[in-house]
Amino acid sequence: MKGVPRGGAGLARAVLATARASALEALQQPAAILIGLSVCSLVALQPLLQLHSFGESGRLVRDCALAAMLLGGAALCALCSAAPMAAALAGGGAATALARPAPRAVLPVGHWLGSVCAAALFVWCVAWQSLLAGRTAEAYVQTAHFAGDIRDALCGAVSALLPAFSLGLAAWRNIRRGTRIGTAFFVIMAVLAPLAAALLGFWERDGSWLGFAFWDPGLDWRIVAPSLAIWLLLCAFCAGGAAFATRLPAAAAASASFLPFVLGFFADGLASSEHLAVRALAPLLPSVRDFWLAEALANGGSVSSSALPLAALHAAAWSAMALAVGTLALRRRDL
Amino acid sequence: MKIPLFAENLRKTYRDFWGRPRTEAVRGISLAVRPGEVVGLLGPNGSGKSTTIKMVLGLLRPDGGKVELFGLPPSEPAARRHVGYLPELPDQHRFLTPRETLAYHAGLMGLPSSGADARAEALLDRVGLARAAFDKPLSECSKGMARRAGLAAALLGDPQLVVLDEPTSGLDPVGRHEVKELICELSRDGKAVLLSSHLLSEVQDVCTRVAIMVAGLVRAEGNLSGLLERRDAVRFTVSGLPPEKEADCRAALGVASGGLDVAVDHPAATLEEYFLEVLRAAREEGGAEGGAAAVADGGGAR
Ligand SMILES: Nc1ncnc2c1ncn2[C@@H]1O[C@H](COP(=O)(O)OP(=O)(O)O)[C@@H](O)[C@H]1O
Ligand SMILES: [Mg+2]
Q: Fewer beta carbons within 10 Å, N or C terminal of chain A?
C-alpha cells in the first residue's frame, strides 16, 4: 500500500501531465495549424499590404500585427482550451483521468495550463514575425551607398517564407519519422524565427552586407511588452474556455468563451457608469483595454512600467475566478 | 487492511437536461470485493454494469446508497490511490501513443518520471502489446491494441483493486486468453478484481464470484460453483465398474453397488444455461427487458 506519492508534488505532476496531453492535442488540431500558419504569414505580408505610415514608419504594420496576434490568438485559445477539455469529458478521457487519485480541479487547471502554453508558443512565433515585419516596413535609411525610404526586401522575403517553410519541414518530419505535424510546425517556427532575425543582422536594410563586426538585427523591441500583454489576455481567455467546457460541448464552449471578451471591450464604459449595479459588473469582465498596449508605442513612446504588472494581476485574478467556477461546475458533474 | 471495495444499496437514475428522471439504470446493488477475489458483474447490454462501476469509482454520483474504497468515500482522491480502472471505451486520448498514455497516467498518479520508461515498457510487454505499437498514436492502433494499452495503464502503480469494464472486448482469441491469465495472476497476487462482462466464458474461467445483473438489479449472486450446481439433479460416479455389472447397478442403484466407490454429486449447468434461466425468470417476473428500466413517466418524447 505504498509507492504512490501524495501531496503537492504529486498534484503538480498530475496538472503537468494533463497540461502536456492537452497542449499536444490542441496544437495537433488542423484548425490550430491553420491559424498559426495564416497569422504568421499575414503578419509577414503586412509591410506589403499597409501603404500608409501615419507619420511614423512601421506604425500601422506594428498595430496590424498586434491585432492579428490578438484575434488569431483568441481563435486559437478558444479551440485549444475548450476543444480538448470538452472532448475529454464527452469521450470518457476525463473519467479515466479522474479515476486516478487526482482531484477534479486537475482537469480544468491542467487544460488551462496546456492551452496557456500553446498560446505562449503562438505569441512567441507571431511576436518574432512582428519584429521582422517592423524591420521590413518602409523606413528612411541612410547608408554608405544609399539614402531614402526603403523596404527591407530580404527580411520581408525571409519572414514571408518562414511559416510555409516551417510547415513543410514539419510535414517532412511527419512523413519520415511520424512526428506530430502540429507541434513540430509551431516548434520549428519558434526556433527558426529568432534564428532568422539574428542572421539578418548581418545585412543592411538595403540588402548590402554589413560584415560580422557590425551585426545589428535592427528590431524594434518595444513590441515585446504589448505582445506579453496580449498573451496575458489570452491566458484569461483560456481560463474562460476551460470553464465553459466543463458543462458545454466543444463548439458551444469555444463560442461562449468569446462572450466575456466581447463584453470586455465595454468594461471601461461600464466602470464609469452612473448606476452602481452596472459599475459592479465591470470588475467581473476582463477589460480588454488594460491588455492593449499598442497605443503607448505611438510616436516613439513606450509602455509604462506599471502596465504589464497590472495586466498580469488582472489576468491572474480573472483566470483564477474562471477556473474556480469551472471546478465547481465540474465537481457535481457525472462523468 | 480495509476491504478494497464495499458498496451497499447503490441506486442511479439518469436524468434528462431538465432534471426529469429518464432511465433507472441501477436499482439497489450491493457489492463487496476482497483481496484475492475476482468478482464478475454479468449482464446483458444496458443492465447497469458500467453505471455501477462508475459509481464505485466516484465518477457518477449515486442517487442513494454507500460506496467505500479501502474504507474511504470514492470522491476522495486518496481512496483511488490503489485503484486501477480500465474504462469501456479504451482510446480517449487518441493522439497519444501507448507509451505516452502510460506517461500521462503516471503523471496523473503523481509518480515521478525517473524510470518511467522502463516501467511503461514492462507493463506494455506484460499485457502483450507488440513492440511496434509502443510508439504509434492510439488513433492508428486497432481496438484490441488500444485495449491492451488501456489495460497496461490500469495496472500502473501496482493497484490493489483493479476494475475492468469489459476487459476483453475487441480482443482476438489469443488476447482474450492472455487477459484471462493476467486476471488470474492478479488474483493470485492477492489483488481484488471487479470486472464486468456480457461474455459468459470469460466470467466462468476467471471469476471466483459472480453477480448477474438484469435491469439494474442483481438477480443472482454467489460462488460460481454454488450457482451452477443443480440441486434438482443427482449424479453418481462409479469408478472401475465392469461393463457386465452396469445393468445390475442401474437396476439397484445405490443399494447394490457392491461396496464400490460411488461418488454422488449434483451436476453443474453451464453458465450459459444458468444465465439464460435467470434472465427468463426476471422477464417473467417483472416484464423487465434485458436492459435498464425506463422510467414510466419520463415526460414525453426524447
Ligand atoms: N449518460 C447516460 N445518460 C442516460 N442514460 C444512460 C447513460 N449511460 C447509460 N445510460 C442508460 O443506463 C442503462 C445502463 O447502462 P450501462 O450501465 O452502460 O449498461 P451496461 O454497461 O450494463 O451495458 C442503459 O439503459 C443506458 O441506456
Ligand atoms: Mg457497459
A: N
